[in-house]
Amino acid sequence: MPSQPTPLAAVLDAASRIVLGKERQIRLALACLLARGHLLIEDLPGVGKTTLAHTLARLLGLDFQRIQFTSDMLPADILGISVFDRETGVFRFHPGPIFTQVVLADEINRATPKTQSALLEAMEERQVTVEGATRPLPQPFFVIATQNPAYQLGTFPLPESQLDRFLMKIALGYPDRAAERALLEGRDRRVLLAETAPLLSAETLLNEQQHAAAVHASPALLDYVQALVAHSRNTSPTGLSPRAALGLVAAARAWAHLAGRDHVLPEDVQAVLPAVVAHRLQTSSEPRTADEAGRTLIEAVPLP
Hints:
By secondary structure, the protein is of the alpha/beta class. It contains 14 helices and 9 strands.
């Protein structure tokens, strides 16, 4: 069947005009959200991590909240708190910034593990439990977290349980010479973003997510995914979990849907694999980039 354009093609094009020279990273980020996953962006300050998060939320027509993580932040600063109302004589819950459709957790690894853990239930169950009451979060719900490299001062490592809840981890890196020249000659990115109109709505995005989830993955394709997962468990002390395997299939379906196809190819799995596995296979004694970790798996496991 020939490739068919999707409503998301315009989103990819518009985002590429704001975040210059990062078409692959933009496509990965959009595939992550399309697969109902959460995104972790690790890189140096000033390369466009926050701009990418703002751009995606704006173009997708989603409500957006930015949380600046700091070492003195408490879980209540994220989830919300109940305050006694003297007029009614009861406690009234004041929702925290987590109650939105896109949460930018900026510099997440500057907060303590206790505060980081406040996101665990929200990312897995899309709900939060505060003071014994469970409250659902808006739909769709995404966490886009940014973090500085671990070697920078004032950072706390994210525990494995937190990392595993991010479907993908990407890095933007420095722009190439042509993209950086266009950035220097062009208008301020914040001004461009403010003038950008949403291209989708929350309802349209939910519909696109359903279409992506329905993309066909053949038994042979699933055999390939299982072979990749099994190899990671045999060669790494932190092999891929069942959650990671499910996420890999969902991300490959989303990548295929962005290409306008109704079936997943092995090349779709290979395209998203580095972003899905790098933060799950990383060890402190063996620092590797996302591409290196993914390439090792791809080279080790033959195609079906």
